[in-house]
Specification:
- With 90 residues, the protein is an all-alpha fold.
- Helix content is 39%, strand content 0%.
Length: 90
């Protein structure tokens, strides 16, 4: 009797299934060829709250542009456009 009830469970609303967004390289998508180190607001998207650079697996950036982003962030830090270390940067 209990197994018949368990097998005939119906839901009023469909079960919410988390679907991940597919990662994409925003540079290839928007046709950006040059990563400007002087644009600190744009580079903040690739840095976490402590000031660390996000890895490719989190941002979806291609290897070619990840290297350019890392170099641009390092240059911006050197010129004091971005902090090396921060508490609650965002």
């Amino acid at each position: 009797m209990a197994t018949e009830i368990a097998n005939s469970v119906t839901y009023l609303t469909p079960i919410a299934v988390d679907t991940k967004k597919k990662k994409y390289c925003r540079f290839k998508k928007f046709g950006i060829k040059y990563v400007d180190y002087k644009d600190a607001q744009f580079l903040l998207r690739f840095v976490n709250e402590q000031g660390r650079i996000y890895p490719r697996r989190l941002t979806g950036t291609s290897q070619k542009f990840q290297k350019k982003v890392a170099q641009a962030i390092k240059r911006a830090r050197h010129l004091a456009l971005m902090p090396y270390v921060a508490d609650l940067l965002k």
